[in-house]
Amino acid sequence: MDIDLIEHIKTWGAPAGILAGGLIIGLLAERIVRPLLVKAAKKANLEYLAMFAQSLKRMLLLWGILAGFSGALSSMPLKESLLEFLQNLPKVFFLFSLTVVLARLAIGSLGIHAKKAKGDATTISLFSNITKLIVYILGFLVILQSLGISITPILTALGVGGLAVALALQETLSNLFAGLHIIAAKQVKPGDYVRLETGEEGYVTDVTWRNTSIRAIPNNMVIVPNAKLASTIITNYHQPAKEMNLYIPVGVHYSSDLEHVERVTLEVAEEVLREIQGARPDSETTVRFYEFGGSSINLRIKMEVEEYFAHYLVTHEFIKRLHRRYDQEGIVIPFPLRTLHIPDSPEITVRLRNGDDRDIT
């Protein structure tokens, strides 16, 4: 065997072996240890441990490679300047990967908190983006500091530049702080069904740093700037609870037996509550007569539905069933009528729309 080849093997064999060992350890940790940890944490219902294990995705492999590379450098016959440069690479990559892990942990914690607070897994983009931005900025500053670069001038420049940016982006910052106010006040959050003063309505899907997204019933997306949303009048149909009362008016003929009308109406309402999805069968239903109308005695039926959108189907079914039942029971829903009392006179003057007077005999 060639002597030079043997020397090269002796020189680079150990570093290559160390690097390969780090790669193998990283692969084992990534492919075996981490999935087992995720599975065990989910089985034990340990959300934070499962989130921590998931945040390490692909990082254990990277850390194994970086560890092997750092160990290999110690046995490489390299120039001091090149060796110093290469030794900084694992440090930079490790700090950056650690920053990524911390950002994942912070966002995952927000998601778990949101799930416990709202009963769903919706994470607000505004908080997620701000959290990622803060973590990445801190990580960048730590990397610079580890490389011996003073961050004091950078912080000074950021302070002066921040003032200029604030003046240039007044509208954007206004939307940002309005979004923070909307979230902090908890008056509107993702999943709520809202109606704005201007008439737009739908489910809130997200609150970003600039605007709030509302999914309307026709499956269109309404985008509202946060500053405008914070200053408008909003009806939130999911606050303080999703359940809501549904009032349906109806009128019956003056000759109707009101006791009979009340009993039949209650039976139909209770039947709808039991059988129609979205209604609350355990809720109290009431029928109240409230007005002597121009052509009918008017009553109002109160039922409860699970959430705002359910009232469409419940109202639809109730009107159909009530109309059919009234027809079976002989209860009349009168047409709007007006009775004209005309005095006994051989001649009546009628003023037409064009202003002409004509005599009708």
Description:
- With 361 residues, this protein is α+β, with helices and mostly antiparallel strands.
- The protein folds into three domains: 3-150, no CATH class; 171-236, Roll (SH3 type barrels); 244-329, Alpha-Beta Plaits (2-Layer Sandwich).
- It is built from ten helices and ten strands.
- The strands form three sheets. It has a five-stranded antiparallel beta sheet with strand order 4-3-2-1-5.
- A hairpin with a 3-residue loop joins β2 (201-207) and β3 (211-215).
- α1 (3-43) runs antiparallel to α2 (47-55), α3 (59-73) runs antiparallel to α4 and α4 runs antiparallel to α5 (125-146).
- The radius of gyration is 36 Å and the shape is elongated.
- The termini are far apart.
- Mean pLDDT is 80; it is low at 350-361.
Distance between the termini: 135 Å
Mean pLDDT: 80
Strand order in the largest sheet: 4-3-2-1-5
Number of helices: 10
Order of helices and strands: HHHHHHHEEEEHEEHEEHEE
* % residues in beta strands: 15-25%
Helix content: 55-70%
Shape: elongated
Uncertain runs are: 350-361
How many β-strands, per DSSP? 10
**Total individual domains:** 3
Q: Report the radius of gyration as a whole number of Å.
A: 36 Å
Supply the helix-strand structural class: alpha+beta
Largest sheet: 5 strands, antiparallel
